[in-house]
Amino acid sequence: MLLRRQLANNVSEAIRAAQAAGDLPAFDAPSAASQIERPLKKKGAPPTWGDYATPAPLSLARLAGLPPLEIAERLVKHLPPHPAIGQVTISAPGYINFTLDDLWLARQVETILAAGEAWGSIDIGAGQKVQVEHGSANPTGPLHIAFARNVVIGDTLANVLEAAGYEVQREYYVNDAGSQVRHFGASLYARYAQALGQYEPFPEQGYQGVYVIEMGHAIANEYGSKFLDMPREQALAALTQIGLEHILADARETLAQLHIYYDRWFSERSLYESGLWDKVFARLQERGLVVERDGAIWLAAQELGEDKDAVLVRSPRVVPDSRDRPTYLASDVAYLWDKLVERGFDKAIYVWGADHHGDVPRLKAAARALGLDPERIVIILYQLVTLKRGDQIVRMSKRTGEFVTLREVVEEVGPDAIRFLLLTRAPDSQMDFDLELAVRQSAENPVYYVQYGHARIASILRKAQSLGYSDAGGDVTLLTNPVELTLIRKMLELPELIELAASNLEPHHLTHYAQTLATVFHDFYECCQVLPTDRIAVEPALTAARLKLVRAAQIVLARTLHLMGMTAPEAM
């Protein structure tokens, strides 16, 4: 159990014990009364504020009819001892503060070393099945840089949830049904025919990109006139499928460059071909939540508390082609049923662009319409990214003069820089991605700074080995310097950070923690000599202890980088 939760339990026990002893009157203490916080350690803050604090006396003052400071004094008398706590103090206006014991702190280095790469893992998920669906761009063109924020948030969140004890499935939803895909197929057919010298008018709603021309030429070179020699509809279907497979193959390769992989690529088309949509539609009918109006089929969302009904299937008078009549909502309803019922996920997490905010209440209404708990649906909305090179906004690809693809950015700055920089802000914050900063090898670049911290640790350990020094038998109780203890304190925050990120679905906290951890390590290394030199002597026992601390720091920093899907370089 996390130390913070152990202390919360102790506070609850102290409240009950104080009531039993008559030091506090009888009342039902609210659950928030035992909450434990980490005080904000501003410069000049009193050391008595400790590592943890509880405002319990403040929240109990009205119930107990006593001043908060007096309640604090009475509670402290009944607090059970804890081996991690060296000092308990009281501060105005009514806080109880807990300071970690120095000896206990030093011994946690051994705990970190024993845990290894699993350090920080917790079990708040208790094996709950969670699906994180992210990515899911229309398969009609190459992935672009704005899309990268989606997959980086989703993939990092999946990593964090696994570390928190959830059973996680990563899924990419392939929008391979509907008019957009058919327009793409028609565009590809036109470019293919043109590549063979045959006049073919380009569709009015076609995709104009250079990539479509290149694909048309590639298909012409591989297949010749094969698709011109078959019935047009058959050729369109075949070329659409070839185009989809090409786009998805490119997406897989690009995402692999970002260290992003999926457990499943789910076809939207399969919702209809498998009969699942018919099954879900029948359920909506049985529940009396489907109405036909103006030739269209509507979800009776107003009966579920929404402002207006929502179209599920468009009218044939408006959309003649039956393949294009189901709306995105129709697919979303069937897909939701597949996730929460057919596959039994306890929670479905979606990562969507902020432009889809209007779809959130409709999806929640769809859950209620199906008789499902809408709380099992969590939608993370992220703001788009502005690509910059220094002060200049970058809108076009150098190669094609069109939009900048994700692959181009990966090749220019590398996957680690993309992942880290896109995680530095909360999803709902607007952000700029500076290509110049991403490749800068200086402390200004947070990616370089953090990874340099790991490389520096690896260098220290290599040097120790080359000089014949080892941490074998190192006595960590020799780690008494305040700077050493500060580093240990920071390393011990990772489990709590994972709890925070998993509970609030906020993976961006990892980047801030990584930067702070790197800074604290650099401070330690500047203040505490690890290996002896000709000018500075270090007792062998202290060197062994500090090497253990250095190796523990390497484990924690590497774990943080790996949670963000980044590499932990041995040298830079």
Give a topology summary.
Blueprint: H1 3-20, E1 52-54, H2 56-64, H3 68-78, E2 85-91, E3 95-100, H4 102-115, E4 129-133, H5 145-163, E5 167-174, H6 179-195, H7 210-223, H8 232-257, E6 264-267, H9 269-273, H10 276-286, E7 290-293, E8 296-299, E9 310-313, H11 328-342, E10 347-353, H12 359-369, E11 377-382, E12 385-389, E13 392-393, H13 406-413, H14 415-422, E14 431-434, H15 435-439, H16 446-466, H17 482-491, H18 494-504, H19 509-527, H20 540-563
Parallel strand pairs: 4-5, 4-10, 5-6, 10-11, 12-14
Antiparallel strand pairs: 1-3, 2-3, 7-8, 8-9, 12-13
Helix pairs in contact: 1-3, 2-3, 4-17, 4-20, 6-7, 6-8, 10-11, 11-12, 13-14, 16-19, 16-20, 17-19, 17-20, 19-20
Please give a structural write-up.
There is one protein chain. This protein is α/β, with parallel strands linked by helices and 572 residues long. The chain has four domains: 98 residues, Arginyl tRNA synthetase N-terminal domain (Gyrase A, domain 2); 141 residues, Isoleucyl-tRNA Synthetase, Domain 1 (Orthogonal Bundle); 164 residues, Rossmann fold, CATH 3.40.50; 81 residues, no CATH class. It is built from 20 helices and 14 strands. The strands form four sheets. The chain has a five-stranded parallel β-sheet with strand order 6-5-4-10-11, with helices on both faces. It has a three-stranded antiparallel β-sheet with strand order 1-3-2. It has a three-stranded antiparallel β-sheet with strand order 7-8-9. Helix 16 runs antiparallel to helix 20. The protein is flat, with a radius of gyration of 29 Å. The two termini are 37 Å apart.
